Amino acid sequence: MRLNDLLGRRVLDTHGDVIGGVADVRLVQDGPMLVSMQRALRVDGLIVVENRATRLFGYERHVGPELLRRLVHWRLGEVWYLPWDDVEDITDDAVTTARSRTDLHRLEDFARY
Amino acid sequence: MKKVLGVTLGILTAIGGFVDIGDLVTNALVGARFGLHLAWVVIVGVIGICLYAEMCGRVVAMSGRPVFDLIRERLGPRTGLLTLVASFLVTLLTLIAEIGGVALAFELASGVNYLLWMPLAAFAVWLVIWRVKFSRLEQVFGLMGLLLVVFAVALFKLGPDWGELLHQATRPHPIGHEDWSTYAYFAIALFGAAMTPYEVFFFSSGGVEEKWTRRDLVTARSNVFVGFPLGGILSLAIMGCTAVLFLPAGIQVGTLGQVTLPVAVALGKIGLAIVLIGVFAATFGAALETALSCGYTIAQYRGWQWGKLVRPREASRFHVVMIVCIVLAMLTLLTSVDPVLVTEYSVVFAAMALPLTYLPILIVANDPDYVGKETNGPLRNAFGLVYLALLVVASLAAIPLMIITKGGQ
Amino acid sequence: MPRTPDTSGRVLHAQLHLLDRQLIDQADGHLAGKIDDVELDLDADPPVVAALITGRERITARRIAAIDTAVTVVVEDLDLDYYDNWVENHVIAKIPGAGDATE
Fold it and tell me: Residue B49: enclosing H or E segment and its boundaries?
């Protein structure tokens, strides 16, 4: 599946309600070893934002300027992290999860910098 | 000596930004109509471009990535394309004006009509881009363009009332027949000219051409803090000359000949010769800067190999873009459109391009992935945000003001 | 780039760190286009990045040499320079001096 198709998709919770949209895909370089002696980039999970924008400008991390970061986060609404194990299915136009909205972890728990 | 020459990139960039043909005429025109009542805008503009050019230089030195690379990366392909179209059009329109300006300089020197000089001017610009080493190009035209400092010399020689000039400079309001709408229009024109997008495209791409690494951070900074203030000084000198010579008599400035008149009056034939060489070098330098920037922007958006640091055949699409632009410029000019008027229209596109160009720069200059530990401090960010806001205001006001004042009349 | 405390591999965000990044040919440092899309193999276990897409070319994951402010890839037999070569052969090569270095 292409990344551009996945980005922006609606994310539905276990009740069928729209939680938000896919803003980005978190990759971790600890997958199977490749021929090039590097590990593959494993899809670890999805970053879901409440207001279905696809541009985070990199502000899911704690970089400045502070004012712009606050503006972007204000526009995005909540930012959650959905681990791949919690992704139930990818349908034609949505991503479904077995969790409900209240179960989700906020991305801050995984933020860097 | 190498240290002195090491700042020529900044000087050439500034010349293309502050004293290209459009600005030469605008500065002179503003001086004749408003005296130095708009001088503060040049200073605000110098601070703004210094601020952002330093960020660009830092990003290039630390990561090797030029501005348009970042614009597409942070804004995405669609908004990036919008920025590309807008800034490319500004740059192309300016290129048209500059080649016209080179031809006009030849006309002033020789008396032969500028239309006849046009194809030669266009060909010369292309030939220099094709054959001359980047550092040589920046040294020759940067330093020759500095001959425009003869305006400052002329200003002193004209023996102005410095108290009067200071009085004007410290009073930011329109005078005489002018009203606030023309005042605001020219304020935005001067501010937009100081921060015109191709300056940062050229400066950051030039940093890659010069192969800057993190050891060149000091060089990058000295380029900024020597080049752009010098450009501002040249701007103000031109403004001052016409303020002294034309304002009291109520004469309006519209031609290149009038722009250079104060120097002829103050310093005679020698002064005139020097200023003509300076005008030629500045407009030729600006033509090089804008032609190269036409290539840089498209190539960097698409990810093509670009730059004079490789052989032309290894960056074929980059060179073809520039050739097409130069030919387009020449054809447009041969319709005898007024070269200076062409830059007026670029204001429209600049309005769109400015905030979209500078926002990604501010974002990336804060990103440790790009600049390591050299991220913006809180003071730089505060100024950066203020200028971003100013750019948005200027963008929103530019087109309405252009319509209201009918292009500054 | 720094790691999160609870995983042992490098962490990247696909859109931020891969999409629209400059591609560089590892062999000679030449610029080779932008990453237009990323192909994810979501049916694999575990799901991984399968390839990078630039224009019409597909760069398989094993060719990725480094991911930094630009992404360096091993080009080998891929034809990433198709359009530039076309322009080179039909236009630029006909102008004298096209092969001269300006250094």
Answer: helix B39-63
The interface predicted TM-score of the complex, written ipTM, equals: 0.90
pLDDT score at C2: 42
Structural domains in chain A plus CATH codes: 3-110 (2.30.30.240)
Among chain C residues, CA nearest to A46: C13
What average pLDDT does this structure show over B248-259? 90
B369 has a chain C CB within 8 A of its CB:
yes
Query: What CATH code is carried by the domain that includes residue B75?
Result: 1.20.1740.10
Q: Which member of A2, A25, A26 has the closest CB to residue C39?
A: A2
CA distances from C14 to A27, A61, B21, C37 (A): 7, 14, 45, 10
Residue C7 is encoded by which pair of tokens? 């995983």
Q: How far apart are CA B45 and CA B47, in angstroms?
A: 5
Q: How many domains does chain B have?
A: 1
Q: Is C20's CB within 8 Å of B76's CB?
A: yes
Which tens digit of pLDDT belongs to each residue from B225-234?
A: 999 999 999 9
Residue B78 touches partner C, C-beta closer than 8 Å: no
C17 contact partners, CB below 8 Å, separation of at least 6: B369, C67
Amino acid type, B232: G
pTM equals 0.94
Given a contact cutoff of 8 angstroms between Cβ atoms, the answer to whether A61 and A50 are in contact is no
How far apart CA B353 and CA B293 sit, in angstroms, is 14
Instruction: Note whether A64 contacts B75, CB cutoff 8 Å.
Output: no
pLDDT digit string, tens, across residues C51-87: 999 998 999 999 999 999 999 999 988 888 888 888 8
Question: Residue B332: how many CB atoms within 10 A of its CB?
Answer: 19
The pair of structure tokens assigned to C6 is 């609870």
Neighbour count for residue B248 (Cβ, 10 Å):
11
Q: For A46-89, how does the pLDDT look when each residue is reduced to its tens digit (9 = 90+)?
A: 999 888 766 777 777 777 788 888 888 888 888 888 999 999 88
Cβ–Cβ gap C14/A26 under 8 Å:
yes
C14-94 folds as SH3 type barrels. (2.30.30)
Tell me what pLDDT residue A111 has.
54
Largest CA distance in chain B: 58
Is C33 in the B-facing interface, judged by CB distances under 8 Å? yes
User: Is omega for the bond preceding A65 within 30 degrees of 0, making it cis?
Assistant: yes
Instruction: Select from A55, A66, A113 the Cβ nearest to the Cβ of B76.
Output: A55
C49 touches chain B (CB under 8 A): no
B304 touches chain C (CB under 8 A): yes
pLDDT value of residue A14: 87
Distance (Å, whole) CA B298 – CA B404 = 34
Nearest residue on chain A to B368, alpha-carbon basis: A63
- Give me the residue spans of the domains in chain C: 14-94
The string of pLDDT tens digits covering residues B299-350 is 999 999 999 999 999 999 999 999 999 999 999 999 989 888 888 778 778 8
A55–B375 CB contact, under 8 Å? no
CB pairs under 8 A between B and C: 82
Mutate to test the interface with C, among B58, B288, B302, B314 (most CBs of C within 10 A): B314
Confirm whether B409 is domain-assigned: no
pLDDT of residue C3: 37
Contact C47 A47 (CB under 8 A): no
